Amino acid sequence: MSDIDARQIERMKSVFDAQKAAFKAGKIRSLSERAADIARIETLAKEKADAFCDAVSADYGRRSAAETQIAEIGFTIATAKHARKHLKSWAADRSVPVPMTLAPGKAYIRREPKGVVGIVAPWNYPIQLALAPLVPALAAGCRVMIKPSEYTPRVADMLKDTLGELFSEDHVAVITGGPAVGQAFCDLPFDHLFYTGSTHVGRMVAQAAAKNLTPVTLELGGKSPTVIAPDFDVEEAAKTIAWGKYFNAGQTCVAPDYVLTPKGSESQLADAIIANAQKFWPEPDSNGDYSGIVSERHYKRIADMVEEARAGGADVRQSAAPTGSNHHAYPPTVVLNAPADSRLMTEEIFGPVLPVLGHDGLDEAARFINERDRPLALYVYTKSKATARSFLDKTMSGGVGVNVPMLHLSVEDLPFGGTGASGYGAYHGEDGYRTFCHERSVFHAPVWHPIRLMAPPYGKLFEFFKKLQAG
Q: Cα-Cα-Cα-Cα dihedral of 184, 187, 188, 192, to 10°?
């Protein structure tokens, strides 16, 4: 461990202790205080939008400003607005019925802040995935520490500076640093730990949290399938598949990872996807609307996966020739006949490469999906609502899009989260608020309650209660 890492870890522990002490001293923040906290995040996203776009682009080498505005700035603003609008109803006590034997007592659920929470944000959407979970954590009344990715250091520094101007460090703090700092961050005994990233690292995060019995939300990834039913036109499907796959150059956890299309339509679909990609992002090597790959290492990984598949006999189709010379821009790519054991078919791609396979019917497509880990998202294209429902009955995934990819993510009142290897726990909207709350059960008896009569020596009253319980 370097001296820099050691100093950062010591500072991090000091901040954690300060937040713990601050939470104990002022456990319940008023709703007006929480609403003001959320409003600060909304204002920050609005006022620093251009600066955030520039920071992300500098970290990537080139990141589409429009895509940053849509997926990060706009998303954060919408999340904050929604939370402010619904905060009062989310925070209200929930009354629950009591059995006759406990009347006239009252029962209710209090939603209370868990305490000090940690948020580990990834590099692919470094603003949204730091601030979007921060909003419900603040809404719940928690103290928050954020660990941004070391792959986006300019964004990390900007988050540290801007949030540092808005909040005291014992309320919201940003901890920067590399893997050693990240590991030490996850080792802290948080009251809740929220992680977004790869399944591989997610397992290690869960193990670290388990040592402290820290509850964890894991927002992971996986190979999200797209299925085209025989009743849906592949040319029409190609339009939104191309947009969903190549947005942010495929560096999206819910991007389509592979497509299952009716056998015989594979080549037509591939050509249509490439044609749409060329229309959306002409000359990707120099197109400012097309995002680069975040690092040379990630670029090489994607290029190597494609070449491995090509060497195995796959048909590789691209919207342009890859050069790697300009901002690590890898062109939109479709791969036909990728070997089943190739990395394209066994690993989450997380780049602008889309394998296309044929299926002999939706039952076969469902079996193919079910033989693999449960994905974070699943997309099915069909004109029939009954077909869509039937396919969902046969499969499992974190979320679903029918006839369009990714947009379920933008519905604030839909819980967002995975299942199985794609993660556990959910957030967005009220589910995000509940994630950072402890739901405390309360039974409130009046000054005199008949249960006082239920004491030894048991007699006729006990027999009366026994009959009531028996119905």
A: 130
